[in-house]
Amino acid sequence: MANEFIVRDGIKSLGGVTFPYTGVTNTYNVASEDYLVNATSGTFTITLPTSVGISGKQYIIKNSGNGVITINTTSSQTIDGDLSISLTQNNTVEVISDGSNWKIVAGIGDIVVEESTKSGYITNTFFTGTPNIYGYLIVGFP
To answer: Rounded to whole angstroms, how far apart are CA atoms 142 and 137?
Structure first.
């Protein structure tokens, strides 16, 4: 536990909290120090690192550009059972490692999985929007 930070009654910040931001414009391999990776233009691929050995590690991928961003995994790992997902313009997904694969824990907008598009916000087991396929727990955030 030498490098762990344990909080028992919540974190209080008097000056805000800063998280790492990385803007990218072409193919990118997510690094361990990344948190928010923002694709700012074009159509390209962002590859997540291996999820093995980093259980609990989270990344947010945002597509603020005008193309389609494909998010790939490594070593045949999956994102909610799929080898890749895609984000259309102005959409976001947050993933977390379970120690062997990636799980979608939050998202907003269109996330294309197995060539099926989900639009809107999914919270718990309810959906507002027009999904083609339902089956993922995605919690929208602003």
So the answer is: 16
Which single residue is written with the structure tokens 């993922």?
136
* All structural domains of the chain with their residue ranges: 21-128
- Using a cut of 0.90, tell me whether the model's pTM lies above it: no
Q: Determine the topology of domain 21-128 in CATH.
A: Jelly Rolls (2.60.120)
The owner of tokens 């694969």 is: 101
pLDDT digits (tens, 9 = 90+) for 5-22: 777 887 777 888 888 999
Q: What is the sign, positive or negative, of the torsion defined by CA atoms of 119, 121, 126, 129?
A: negative
State the Cα–Cα distance between residues 34 and 40, nearest whole angstrom.
16
Compute the 3-state secondary structure of the chain and give helix, strand, coil in percent, each to the nearest 5: 0, 40, 60
The CA distance from 22 to 40, in Å, is 10
Judge contact between 112 and 86, C-beta under 8 A: yes
